[in-house]
Specification:
Length: about 475
């Protein structure tokens, strides 16, 4: 029978601690591959916790690939454990990486808040592998056929249903284009519209979009933002033809564009015949308070909005599947001009994702991740607020998406503090690092940190805050 000492759980919930302990016992070989686990009721009686605590822990372990279940037989340790055992090392060793690890591109920091990663271990391996087997058994002939530039019809239909349920968008599968990440979609947009088009991006903003537009040979201008989003007057004066924006949750400031500003940006597009808006809705699934405002695409009455989203935030950054929704008239022209392309995403992955969505497993996964990130955010902010950090900083924009801002009080040298944190293994970027050119409008930008917390393990939070507090002592504040 599994033994767990809950007196050592610290700030972890009963479920989180039980998950952690069972993981460790699997990785240490105390629970063998394919070994049958105790029933939920017997384990709850043995440990003195509720059945729901054990049930939630087992469900989490199944999602993460550590356990699998067989109907009417019970729960068993997964073969995934053997793969993970070879990778496991003590936490103290993980901060000291070899030259080979440095070449791999992995972060050398104990906690990297600049990383665009998602929570490790949260990917639903068992459900995904089950879906892959189903696809291999039922779609084997389709897997061998060439996929056109738009992508598989099955995935495009599944995305239509998803957008209707999550964003109340009424679109046709004929409007959807599947791409191998947003980078490939941005490049295709340039090829479709031509290199004589002027693109506009938000400043500060998502730098990769501007880099892709520029490297593809177009002119790219940078438009300032205020507390409502991109500034319409500056956009009008820029001479841009297409503007890239993230109205649902701006990165990195976290601003949510209000309805009036959205109407102003649409009016900008309507004033000239060939103006368009690229609406990047990259993490709209993770809104923690209230309902999100409607997308620009859903209120666009003149076919001027190209909607873009990705599965990288909800599944994994290595999961290179993104999509865009073109206005119907553009979709026809897009097919005519770029029909020589084949879709860059493998058919196998497209069919697997389509089935994963249609089965309801994707929605369940999003809900689990939303709950996890809400809890992770709350734990991190609570730890900040209870530490010495609370005396020198405030937190902003914490109710949407998976990052928030940490704003220092006046008189504190942010760059010096950032360097002290880096010496102790904590990497947090400054908001000023996301600007194009020199920022001269708002001095607070130089003292504001962008906290991307999605890839931070919950169990590291106490150590992270302790290291930051020690850095404050070193700085004399």
């Amino acid at each position: 029978m599994i033994t767990v000492d809950f007196e050592n759980r610290g700030n972890l919930s009963l479920t989180d601690f039980l998950v952690k302990e069972i993981k460790n016992q699997i990785l240490d070989g105390k629970i063998a591959e394919d070994e049958k686990m105790p029933s939920k009721r017997s384990l709850s009686l043995h440990l003195g916790v509720s059945v729901i605590t054990v049930q939630n822990a087992y469900e989490r372990l199944i999602d993460e690939g550590y356990l699998y279940s067989i109907e009417k037989r019970g729960f068993f340790a997964s073969g995934l454990a053997n793969h993970l055992k070879s990778k496991k090392m003590p936490e103290t060793e993980r901060t000291e990486t070899s030259s080979d690890e440095k070449k791999s591109g992995e972060s050398l920091f104990f906690a990297d808040f600049a990383s665009n990663s998602v929570a490790s271990g949260r990917f639903p391996f068992s459900l995904w592998s089950k879906t892959m087997r189903q696809v291999l058994n039922s779609e084997n002939e389709k897997l061998l056929k060439k996929c056109d530039v738009f992508g598989s019809l099955e995935l495009r239909r599944a995305i239509c249903h998803h957008l209707k349920d999550f964003r109340n968008m009424e679109v046709s599968e004929n409007q959807i284009v599947i791409g191998a990440g947003t980078e490939s979609l941005y490049s295709m947009i340039v090829q479709f519209f031509g290199r004589d088009i002027v693109f506009a991006v938000e400043n500060p903003g998502y730098k990769k979009a501007a880099d892709i537009f520029t490297i593809n040979g177009t002119d790219c201008v940078h438009i300032g933002i205020d507390d409502k989003g991109i500034i319409p007057e500056e956009l009008e004066e820029s001479g841009a033809d297409i503007v890239h924006i993230s109205p649902s949750h701006h990165f990195p400031t976290g601003i949510v564009m209000d309805f009036n500003r959205r109407k102003e940006i649409l009016e900008w597009a309507y004033r000239k015949e060939n103006r368009f808006i690229l609406e990047d809705d990259y993490d709209s699934e993770f809104r923690f308070v209230g309902k999100p405002l409607p997308t620009l695409q859903s209120i666009d009455s003149r076919n001027r909005v190209i909607y873009i989203n990705t599965f990288s935030k909800t599944l994994s950054p290595s999961f290179r599947i993104s999509y865009m929704v073109l206005p119907e008239n553009l979709a026809v022209k897009f097919g005519e001009k770029l029909s020589f392309y084949s879709c860059q995403v493998s058919s196998f992955e497209q069919f697997t994702l389509a089935r994963f969505i249609e089965s309801g497993n994707y929605e369940k996964h999003i809900n689990r991740m939303k709950n996890y990130y809400r809890s992770l955010r709350n734990n991190l902010m609570s730890a900040f607020q209870k530490s010495a950090l609370s005396e020198i900083c405030t937190i902003r924009e914490e109710n949407s998406g998976i990052h928030f801002l940490l704003c220092l009080k006046k008189g504190i040298d942010a760059k010096k503090l950032q360097e002290e944190w880096r010496k102790k293994g904590i990497n947090i970027p400054l908001l000023s690092e996301y600007f194009y050119g020199e920022n001269k409008k708002n001095p607070e930008i130089e003292t504001t940190f962008v906290v991307n917390y999605s890839g931070i393990p919950r169990e590291k939070i106490g150590d992270i805050v302790s290291r930051q507090d020690n850095s404050l002592d070193a700085d004399g504040r």
